[in-house]
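Morning, I've got a small favour to ask if you have a moment. I owe you a coffee for this, so here goes:

…
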Amino acid sequence: MQPSSDTSSDLWPALPYAELRPTLETLQLFAQVAGKTRLAGTPWLNHSWHVTFTVSGRGLITGLIPHGRFSFDIEFDFVSERVELRTTTGTRAYVALAPKSVASFYAEFGDALASLGIALDIDRMPNELPDPTPFDQDNAMRVYDADAARRFWHALVQAERVMQRFRTRFIGKCSPMHFFWGSFDLAVTRFSGRRAPLHPGGIPHLNDDVTREAYSHEVSSAGFWPGSPGAEAAAFYSYAYPVPAGFGEARVTPAAARFDKGLGEFVLPYDAVRNAADPDAMLLEFLESTYEAAADLAKWDRAELECEEGRVGLPRRVR
């Protein structure tokens, strides 16, 4: 499973969207079933941080979900090609990751929960997707290619590793490195500490109250997504809310970065990073450059919010 060499093309796998799209669309719907299970069992945390997944050594994993006298977690294991559900009492159950309908996956996932003594009523309607069908009524056969899923996971591993370095350079409020199953992206968000104007909402199939709570404070957010209809290429992104005047015209680097007016954010093609002589350096340059544009234009107190990059085994010096 692990690359046999350390060249960029091995560490950063090819992610041709047209080829991966059917599996990514299947995986997003399967992930929403698991994500809504976490949502149904976890107390609300600011900015919806309680519902996310994190990148693991085998795929994507939830945190612990409390359920009465025990807790459980859910992991999308792209090595063993299954979703594993584990309880703190030592029991476990599995659902195969394979071509099947969303309705079949939903039923099998419900059976796995029941076998562990877990009873949760989840919202069956997908979020942030056009023309959604309830999970239990989506009977269309779905494509699932295990190699495509593993390539996506390996890209997440590399993106998470570099973005964690970027995260350590900020001592103000900052989100964890986490994966949102609604928008299907890996994200990290920095906060200025100031309140933001009320978000207008309007994200398809997402409650406006959720959006407004997520963007209650000023942010500079960056992340990675594998592509989606209308933006059909894997890319890194960076945006600000509220958008400071002049943000879209800011000069950012590297040269491959551009501002996408339709998305309202800066994007850097994944392939530009993958094929760079130093992918880590290029991605860090993009993350820093776009954050600085947002922070400077919005007049963040950068001296109070930033710090040197974290180093292994060395706590930050406090004076």
Helices lie at 8-11, 17-41, 102-115, 146-167, 208-214, 270-274, 279-297, 302-305.
